[in-house]
Amino acid sequence: MIIILVFSFFIVLFIPIGVRVIYDNTFSDIDVFLFKKIKYKFDLDEFVRLFITDKNKPDKISLKAIVNNLELIIKSKKIIKDFCKNSKIVKSTIILKQDYDNIYTFISFWSIVSRYSFILKKYFKKVNNEYYMISDANNDISIELIFKFKLYKVLFILIKNIKELLKILKSRRRQKNESSYL
Predict the structure, then answer these.
(1) pLDDT tens, 15-55?
(2) Which of 89, 113, 134, 166 has the smallest count of CB within 10 Å of its CB?
(3) CA 86 to chain centre
(4) How far apart are CA 72 and CA 174, in angstroms?
């Protein structure tokens, strides 16, 4: 029985985990999937809400919570970069549905796409499938990003950056204690 558990643990460590981020005016979602059968879905709005609300008051959006979460992201920059270097972009799609006869829309969209593509290729290990388009339709934008990583690489990154991780956890604990006094 223990051998089966250990074997299944190692299988999970080496199987790629995929994350699919979809944004559309009508639908926004984040899917985390292991294999093609096991999926966990959660709403993109709830995920973004985690970054703009206070942990103790999840229904209240505050500037202090936004600043604290931005500080956390800045402190985690090295860990995030290492994670991206060990992840692979499977698919990146941006479709702007707007009047493409407008020259300003056309130029600004392709400038943003060029910068976005450059950032993906610079920070991620590999970018496989990129698709960008302007479609003549109502004012809408569709974004889809799928990337994959392996759990053992995430564990390796966390071990490699243990000092930064401990600093982040210590500062979060200090922020929590300060907010409990208020």
Answers:
(1) 888 888 888 877 778 888 876 666 767 666 666 666 666 66
(2) 166
(3) 14
(4) 13
